[in-house]
Design goal:
Structural class: alpha/beta
CATH topology: Double Stranded RNA Binding Domain
Number of domains: 1
Largest sheet: 5 strands, mixed
Strand content: 25-35%
Distance between the termini: 58 Å
Number of helices: 3
Helix content: 25-40%
Number of strands: 5
């Protein structure tokens, strides 16, 4: 008991000091963007028309909305119309394809892969060395026993999320 009486007061003082010190430390939120907001204030995001051989019409709107949402959530840039923006994002959906993957014992595919490819052009009007002209692809696999029409909406949502992350990191994140 005497040992506890000797240890407890200094321990309480140490815990109180630790709590006070950590309360004074500023915190920073890392959102992935590497933008100098003194230089860049606006961004223009153009439409991404579907130029793929196989077309799923809702994909364009889903992808564009997810890209604009990511820019709005993760940056302080103002989205504007026209070519007067500090940063310009444009492109097209160039690929929407299905391919068989795993083959079962009956020689039929047991898995099918949906792949979406987006060609992106990112223009930095202040620093051309940051420009990006690149294609990005992402895919999801699903059981071949399912109809594409049953899983297409969900797969397009998931693939669009991944594509937007890849694009954001390669452009606004400056990775």
């Amino acid at each position: 008991m005497k040992l506890l009486a000797r240890i407890l007061p200094p321990l309480l003082v140490a815990v109180a000091a630790l709590l006070t010190a950590t309360a004074c430390i500023p915190s920073y939120k890392f959102n992935g963007s590497a933008i100098n907001y003194n230089v860049y204030k606006t961004v223009n995001i153009s439409e991404f028309p579907i130029r793929a051989a196989l077309v799923y019409p809702p994909l364009q709107q889903v992808f564009e909305n997810k890209l604009m949402d990511a820019v709005t959530r993760q940056t302080r840039l103002r989205i504007v119309d026209g070519n007067n923006a500090d940063l310009r994002v444009s492109g097209e959906i160039t690929g929407y394809s299905l391919s068989p993957q795993a083959v079962g014992t009956d020689a039929y595919a047991t898995e099918t892969r949906l792949t979406i490819t987006v060609r992106l052009k990112y223009e930095d009007t202040k620093n051309a060395s940051n420009n990006v002209d690149q294609s990005f692809s992402a895919y999801r696999q699903f059981s071949s026993s399912l109809m594409l029409t049953d899983v297409q909406d969900e797969l397009c949502q998931q693939i669009s999320d991944e594509l937007v992350d890849l694009i954001f990191n390669a452009t606004f994140g400056n990775w």
